[in-house]
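hi! just following up on the protien thing from before. the input was this:
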Amino acid sequence: MRTLNVYSSYLAKAFGILAAAFVLLIMVMMVADVVIRMSLGSSMPGVYELVELSLAAAVFLGLPVTQRLGGMIRVDFVVERLRPPIRRGVDVFAISFSLIVCAVMTVATFQSYDAALQSGEARTGLLTIPTWPSRLAVAVGLAVLCVELLVALIKAIRALRDGTDQTDAPPALPLE
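and the predicted 3d structure came back as:
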């Protein structure tokens, strides 16, 4: 478990950096497009399509580090009122359910990536840009999120078994 936790931590951080790079790329493309449009009176070809595909990559590659840092939305106004043993059981159930849904989405997204790659699917506008790199980024981001959810599930099961609270459980957002 310790090895899985360490490697998934490195992987999540690397994906966070990659997601930030995509956000930076989007920002640079949009600023360049605005400057060119203001100077020359027309947009740069393909910027809209590239930003659209890069945004999906930025979001889904950032999911693992968001899970690792406890940034996922979590509403527990009911759960916080439960006794600790029941709360730990609810955490195990919720993380298990999330992992199953994420795994199904990962498989479906890899299938979508494969279909896009095989068919040569592309986003057409002023430029024709293949969609498979973006679909691959979404699938890989979801796969690494599954690893993060597995780590969280193991921690939650241990907390349930040992009767302890998870010290590194993601914090809930206050509803004030």
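The CA atoms of residues 58 and 121 lie 20 Å apart.
The mean pLDDT is 89.
cheers
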